[in-house]
Please model this.
Amino acid sequence: MKKSLRLIFWSFAVCVVLLAILSWTSYQKIKDSTSYATSVEHTHEVMRKSEELISILKDFETGQRGYLLTKEKVFLEPYYRAESQINNVYRTLHYQIRDNPLQAKRLDTLRNAILQKLRLLRINIKQSDGNQIFDKESFLLGKKEMDKIRVIVNQFQATERQLLAERKALKDKTDNQTTSTLLMLSIFSFVLLFVSFLLIFLELQRRLKFQHQLENKIDELNRSNADLEQFAYVSSHDLQEPLRKIRAFSDRMIRKHAESLNEDGKETLDKITYSAERMQTLINDLLDFSRLVNRKEVSFQEVNLQETIERVINDLSLKIEEKKAQLNVEKLPYIWGVSFQLNQLFLNLVSNALKFTAADRGPVISIIYSLVKGSEIKGIEKIRRELDYHKITVSDNGIGFEEEYAEKIFVIFQRLHGRGHYEGTGVGLAICRRIMTNHNGFIFAESKLGEGARFILYFPTK
Model:
């Protein structure tokens, strides 16, 4: 599952990166294409302005000829506008080609030639106004200047046409690259998105199948629990009734025939009574354990653990006095739980501490509380590491046990000592773990042989 989730994550990550690259590339390519289009339009504008210069001069020459032939002032209108128009066009062109030194130099040469041409035209007009004889040389010089202007303009435009061709080629190339690049990235992104979708679809199918299997397992488990419940009910009635009769008959035998029985007979009856009592205790413990497995009827509420411990101490007061035990209990919190289960939990732990005492020292039992993070709990799932937990440690200075049994002691019927040394059925600590499981908590045991034992409980705060 982790591998498939990792694949889905990386496929989406690559898709995001590719889409980011696609967006950035699109932006850059469109920006470049716009820039080249602007430069092409700029070149066209420069060529139009250079044509405008020639057009102004042609209009001026035409107006000059008309005036010289007719003496009508109307033909001089282009003359009056010529200089200002030429200056405007020159400034515009000079600004447009400011980044091209060659063209700027040509433009300066062109302006000087135009000014010389205008000077010669003024001379001709002035001679005409004064009824003077026209100077043939000035006409020839005017023609030469006009030819020179045309040559410069042709060179100027030839350079612009070359720039135009280059810029159009770059624009076409950029447009083609943009189309190819965007198409390639789009196809690759689509393929990855499709693969991601396919992985998600397969993962959902797998999870739905797993969920279906899990639901079947839950149904089986519910049926199994129902069978276990039925078995526990039968055990509580069908097994206890013969036990009550065995104990009743053995008690009757002791009362009526105690004097007539020899020592062997009395010992046999005592063993029968003791075995029946142990069987009764074992059945009761098994019933308690089966009730803990079935959690349908339990109700959770705020439980004051301080009051719970006080009740446990009160219930065990006779044994505490008999053992002359010392109990040190810190202030305990409220927790969300089932009152009678928590009472049973601490009753079992304190009873164990009173049971497995050392012969050479008085028993000391300590119950310590602190608030911790889930990250401090060994083996906890990642999702629960950031939660807060109530940590309660129940420790004693008894006989302890070897560290290798720290997990085995929570297994039902697991005993570390013979029945002749310590009483019990081996169910108590299994009940403790079951109660902690019912409360979504944890229980761990730590000990060294001869140095006492520590039982560490973790209850979630919420």
